[in-house]
């Protein structure tokens, strides 16, 4: 095999050692954030200098710059875990790193990597069997199922900023999840943040909240609402021809032009009114004149710009499987090739 000038290659024991070192370094980086007593990390952007304080494994791993190929492999596997399961990124990185740390000792004793991999597979099956035997399923009992979800939520929040209010936020989280009717699409849960107040002032609303300003002179409360959602211009319609001009010979003609524009907008508002609604939500800005018209019709107008240690068995199963696969993958490495940077041809 012929490589370009500048390509580097590590083979055999050197490649395996580099894989061990890179993966173990990633595990050591995030292991102090793991669990209910996990610590926080301060991340500072190299380009902007912005600072973030977090103990979320996914956030930490995607923020660090790596030049070790094995470390990048482990980070990518952790990202897959986050995308598919939504949690367990730190656990995958730490467990895989510890498996490789022990594998390094076995390799030093002249045990072949494939033999170690076979042992990983046996151990992984035993761990999954133990998890399955100890898991409980209360999905047929709503009360017990909710109790399990609350325990999982409290465990998750124990190491977060919300730890002091974990009971309150556990209730909010479980209530929100149960309303999804077993759907896993969390985009249906909208979070609106407001400055001021206490964390415990947070609440879950059963309806739909738009974080926008209500129109002038519009009611603050509306019952039995009939709502029309639209995406239409509520300003004077613009002439869509580049460079077009309107020439008038007197101020009277200008007044006639303005009146025609207002009459056109009034007709549009009348059409909206004809639907029998009492609440109008528009994606585009509602300007003063149509807002006044809506006020005279007693319509509401808005600005709208778009809408204990207990853990999940499926999560733990995914962590064990992903960590084992990551360790197996890196144990097979006996050659690391770093391609030379592509050179630009000078003209």
TrEMBL record:
GO molecular function, one term: unfolded protein binding
Record's protein name: CCT-beta
A GO CC term attached to the entry: chaperonin-containing T-complex
Domain of life, per lineage: Eukaryota
Localization of this protein: Cytoplasm
Keyword Membrane: no
The species this protein was found in: Trichoderma longibrachiatum ATCC 18648
Pfam families per UniProt: Cpn60_TCP1
Location, primary (coarse class): cytoplasm
PROSITE patterns cross-referenced by the UniProt entry: TCP1_1, TCP1_2, TCP1_3
The entry's keywords: ATP-binding, Chaperone, Cytoplasm, Nucleotide-binding
Transmembrane segments: none
Family named by the database record: Belongs to the TCP-1 chaperonin family.
């Amino acid at each position: 095999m012929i490589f370009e000038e500048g390509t580097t290659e590590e083979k055999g024991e050197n490649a395996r050692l580099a894989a061990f070192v890179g993966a173990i370094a990633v595990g050591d980086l995030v292991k102090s954030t793991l669990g209910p007593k996990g610590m926080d990390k301060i991340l500072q952007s190299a380009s902007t200098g912005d600072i973030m304080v977090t103990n979320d494994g996914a956030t930490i791993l995607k923020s660090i710059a790596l030049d070790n190929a094995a470390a990048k492999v482990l980070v990518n596997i952790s990202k897959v875990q986050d995308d598919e399961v939504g949690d367990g990124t730190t656990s995958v990185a730490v467990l895989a790193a510890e498996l490789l740390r022990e594998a390094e000792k076995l390799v030093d004793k002249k045990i072949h990597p494939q033999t170690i991999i076979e042992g990983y597979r046996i151990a992984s099956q035993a761990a999954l069997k133990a998890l399955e035997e100890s898991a409980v399923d209360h999905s047929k009992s709503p009360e017990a199922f909710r109790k399990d979800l609350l325990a999982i939520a409290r465990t998750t929040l124990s190491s977060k900023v919300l730890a002091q209010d974990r009971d309150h936020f556990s209730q909010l989280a479980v209530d929100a999840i149960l309303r999804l009717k077993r759907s896993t699409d969390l985009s249906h849960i909208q979070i609106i943040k407001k400055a001021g107040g206490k964390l415990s002032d947070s609440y879950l609303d059963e309806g739909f909240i738009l974080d926008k300003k209500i129109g002038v002179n519009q009611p603050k409360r509306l019952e039995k609402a009939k709502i029309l959602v639209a995406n239409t211009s509520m300003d004077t319609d613009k002439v869509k021809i580049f460079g077009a001009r309107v020439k008038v010979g007197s101020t009277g003609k200008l007044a006639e032009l303005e009146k025609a524009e207002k009459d056109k907008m009034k007709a549009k508002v009348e059409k909206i009114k004809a639907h029998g609604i009492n609440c109008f939500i528009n994606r585009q800005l509602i300007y003063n004149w149509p807002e006044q018209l809506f006020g005279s019709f007693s319509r509401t107008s808005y600005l709208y710009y778009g809408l204990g240690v207990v853990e999940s068995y499926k999560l733990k199963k995914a962590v064990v499987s992903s960590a084992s696969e990551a360790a197996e993958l890196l144990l097979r490495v006996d050659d690391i090739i770093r391609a030379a940077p592509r050179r630009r041809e000078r003209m």
